[in-house]
Amino acid sequence: MSFVFVTPQSVEDVAATLSRMQSSLADVYAAVAAPTTGVAAAAQDEVSTAVASLFGGFGRDFQAVSAEAHAFHANFVSLMQNGMGAYLSAEAANVSPLQTFEQNVLGVINAPTEALFGRPLIGNGANGAAGTGQAGGAGGFLIGNGGTGGSGASGQAGGAGGAAGLFGNGGTGGAGGAGAAGGAGGNALLFGSGGNGGSGGLAIGGGNGGAGGAGGTSGLFAGIGGVGGAGGAATSGTGGAGGAGGAGNGFFLGFGGAGGHGGSATTGTGGIGGAGGVGDAAGPIGFDLAQGGAGGAGGAATSGVAGAGGAGGAGVGRSVIGFDLVAGGVGGVGGTATTGMAGAGGAGGASAAPALFGFGIAQGGAGGAGGAATGVGGIGGVGGSGSTGAAAIGFGGGGAGGAGGASALGDGGDGGSGGLGVGLLAAVGGAGGHGGAAPTATGGNGGIGGDALSFLAAGGNGGHAGSGIGPANGGNGGNAGTVMNGTFNPSLFGDGGDGGDGVNGGTGGTGGSAGMFGGTKGTNGTS
């Protein structure tokens, strides 16, 4: 019968069900008692009286039997409830010695390091008290997460998150008090992620919101940088800036944390999004994988200017002999606006794969989209620029430009330019971002396509102009080659990017130049 099991909760549930059944049956017995024990005679004759007496006797016998069954039921429910108590007592008796044993063992292990350094060998750090801005305690030297920082009182910054041990995650930073910055996230050491930054405090009156805390750094061998804290909101002041994402400084793996969102504002200015953390894979030999963190979104604004998105973090590989696969982080989206100007998108993060003996792929981060505007006279935000992707031996791709923000009752934002692609073997320029649409006004211009410099290259296409009722221009296509120090340096082989189309009489973009010995010039965009 090893498949049969009992838990205190299951016994309690059964007892409760039986108790409800007992109550329901008692109600039924009471309801039928009068009509079954006192059956009226159908007539005044002797036969009718005898029949009524007979059935009334049956009813009284049934009530007597029911009373005995009710008593048995009540006794059985009581036994079930007592059994539940016995199970709970047995479990408590079993758990308590195990907990005591565990605490005693940890006490013996941690005693030397606590006596010498005031820090355990194994265990999580203590959390900071709320309202004090106290830092979180460090985790155990060997295993342990850092403690969470305490929140700040009004005007007081949040406490920093505690550092982790060799294995563990950094503690989260505490939230800032009113108008104050959030605490930074704690750092990891070998295996673990950095702690997230604390959020900034709300603005006091017409003041500014507090900045978000920076994310903590990842562990050396595995982990992700902590996310930056969000900026605090404001009314007529400026929203707090988002905290920067923590760096991912791994030996072979490096992943940066995302930046925090900027704080919103009503009549003031939205906060800037936090920059993404750098993703840095530092192994000199072997396989390196790195990704920069995404930039945080800009803070929204109602009648003021919205915040710009944060820049994406760089992605860097450091392998000299081996394989690098790296990418820059995406730029943050610009903040939205109602009647004001929406925020610009953040620039993408650059990437570099410098392996000299091996192969590398480097992709630049895309620019963030410009923020949208929804009210009368609101202007869409400009798209962020794509960034450079460069590989010493291998493939480099430029990041795409961010799209311009649309506007419902105003002008659309321009698209961002594409990033440069550089690689000895092949490269592609990033496409320009499309202009933002504006149904009642002028759409945004398309972004310029990125150039590409390589043995085999392809320039990025220019972005198309955004739709609207006014003229807007398309972006030029990227070249198979690039201009350096005022001189155009063409690639050996490659196609130029196509120019973006203009709208409503706007000029189409010019197609990019082809390679020196082969390739096709990009097609010009239509007007």
UniProtKB/TrEMBL annotation:
Residues 4-94 form the PE domain. Pfam families: PE (PF00934), PGRS (PF21526). Gene3D superfamilies: HP0062-like domain. Residues 496-527 are annotated as: Disordered. This is PE domain-containing protein. It comes from Mycobacterium asiaticum.
